[in-house]
Amino acid sequence: MNVVFNHATFRERADMLNFLRLCRERGVDTVSVWADEIEKSGEAVALAALRDHGIKVSGYNRIGPFSPGRLARAERRTRKSRPFWS
Length: 86
Prior knowledge:
The chain has 86 residues and is an alpha/beta fold.
């Protein structure tokens, strides 16, 4: 059985880098991440943490709650998400 944790569930308690570390410590090897959290840590740092922990990305959430003005941001984040799909 493969369990996937979505960082949104834990983001109030752990930033993305701590979330990835905690997942690895518990044997979770697949996560769903959020573009705004990747922006906080930086793309290169986030990719390195995923690679170092051996964690795969099953979901890259980029839009959040739908509201006016979010579509353009989601499109930019979609383009930026390509490195996370290896």
